[in-house]
Amino acid sequence: HSDQDKGDGSLKYILSGDGAGTLFIIDEKTGDIHATRRIDREEKAFYTLRAQAINRRTLRPVEPESEFVIKIHDINDNEPTFPEEVYTASVPEMSVVGTSVVQVTATDADDPSYGNSARVIYSILQGQPYFSVEPETGIIRTALPNMNRENREQYQVVIQAKDMGGQMGGLSGTTTVNITLTDVNDNPPRFPQSTIHLRIPESSPVGTAIGSVKATDADTGKNAEVEYRIIDGDGTDMFDIVTQKDTQEGIITVRKPLDYETRRLYTLKVEAENTHVDPRFYYLGPFKDTTIVKISVEDVDEPPVFSRSSYLFEVHEDIELGTIIGTVMARDPDSASSPIRFSLDRHTDLDRIFNIHSGNGSIYTSKPLDREISQWHNLSVIAAEINNPKDTTRVPVYVRILDVNDNAPQFAVFYDTFVCENARAGQLIQTISAVDKDDPLGGQKFFFSLAAVNPNFTVQDNEDNTARILTRRNGFSRHEISTYLLPVVISDNDYPIQSSTGTLTIRVCACDSRGNMQSCNAEALLLPAGLSTGALVAILLCIIILLVIVVLFAALKRQRKKEPLILSKEDIRDNIVSYNDEGGGEEDTQAFDIGTLRNPAAIEDKKLRRDIIPETLFVPRRTPSAPDNTDVRDFINQRLKEHDTDPSAPPYDSLATYAYEGNDSIAESLSSLESGTTEGDQNYDYLREWGPRFNKLAEMYGGGESDKDTS
Length: 711
Known about the structure:
Structural class: mainly beta
Radius of gyration: 67 Å
Transmembrane segments: 525-556
CATH superfamily of the domain at 410-519: Cadherins
Number of strands: 37
Strand content: 25-35%
Domain Cadherin: 2-82, 83-191, 192-306, 307-411, 411-525
GO molecular function: beta-catenin binding; cadherin binding; calcium ion binding
Oligomer: single chain
Distance between the termini: 175 Å
Protein name: CAD10 protein
Low-confidence stretches: 524-530, 565-577, 594-598, 600-627, 656-660, 674-680, 704-711
CATH architecture of the domain at 410-519: Sandwich
CATH topology of the domain at 410-519: Immunoglobulin-like
Shape: flat
Pfam families: CADH_Y-type_LIR, Cadherin
Number of helices: 5
């Protein structure tokens, strides 16, 4: 209120600043300030305003502008709130009393510096007596000892936050906390049975799973993991146990082959122990358990068992047929001890060289042996029970054929030997060696000699399985003897001694001074002076050029023969396509009559067949019966005239070319042999001028006319 205000209404009060005109208004006559609505301190705690008095008429200020602050005093109008409606927390089971679980915090929008409006106190509405909450901090703690997850895992706790220090009249808010007890290893594994019985057939192979054992553990996760092992029993060397991680089972498997006849019952002591033990809970142990597993072996009809896993027999290749080379033995492992029958797998003895006695397993030869053909024979012997032939066992039998000296040595290769005419005595002309199919233990040793004393050549043994052929005289003449045959005896050193005679063919040849062969013919042939290479090449080229010219000429001639005889674009043969008419074939006696195109009423006379020779050479002419077919007749006459005057026209019947079939056409025959002119006017002498290919026609028609005249 201004001191200048006389109360006469000459002054006017105005207001500016925070909320002026909206939240706050001023009475322009009295200067009183009013709030237009309820003010919330939590939105804004104070407002700065400026007021001034002005002359209503001149609008000039009568006093300086005044600034003042409106401060909003707080009241308890906001309840405490939690940031989360639902909290989730966990705490290990068996935790001691007072173990912290989680802390919850509520906020109050009221002014904490003014009274107790923002002072919050926490309390528990639900969850006792298991949990408690600190009033000032909101920390939730366990309230009971040894809470067991296996008894109860989930808890729901309701926490209240109240302002005004928890006094009556204060506002409050709540939240829910879901608490889960996490697992600890406080439970040992336990077998549900103290004794477990299992069965397995004696034929089960090593590694076969017999069955499983499982110990239960109330814990979860790694706290429930169990390891199994066999700690005692009479079958510790016969069986194994493997822990299955995903199912936490112990799988018992076969470690060694079982035999019902040897032992029928095994007893195992199996232990299950936790792999992760918490030292805090040792007092609850021990964290392991044991059970007894009894395994019964069941009898099965087992196949025969051989005395060995394989057999090796050695025999000489010269033994007689039917000789026993060895014996295999097998027995029935069952208590019944059934007799055994033996046989050979013929797929391993396709040549049937061996056989076996079915009763005693003796293997003997049925065909001669030859080490040089096959040194080893791999057989398969089958043993089967007589009472159960389907139950069989196989064993490999290896037969090694021992060598006997039954092959004579021979020349190692074919020798092409020659001796020079000017050779001297003692000159080397060939070195020979030998081979033998046998394989003696001491190695090969050969001896070389001549079958008889030879005046021309001799053999000198080198004592290293080779020998040298030497001359015994000076000079040889190919004109006297061109070839010598030298028998050489080759012997081995084994028992019995084997020998063979090989013949060397030695040619007499002319040689130069160095001993190089020049000619081995009996007579020197004088060859005429031959043509040079260039001359031969020139002759071949000329022959090739002549052949090419002949081929081209023949091709051009053939091409000229294939040119069409009728080249006119108006070839009447093409018109059959536009008519779209198809002939009836050889058996059609009523051929299509072109006269029906112009004269449907044409007289149908007897038609001649085109596929047989007519009795008369010329068909009597017909007179057109219809006056309206002149255009067709004129057209055909025009074409006929062109062919009559054309010396290159073909001699065959042109009607087939035009594709007009039948005799009764109004146009009559189009053949150049049966022209529209009279018989007397037609002259066929020009046929002789066409060449030798038309001589036959000239004889037929030219000769026919003369014969007719003479007759």
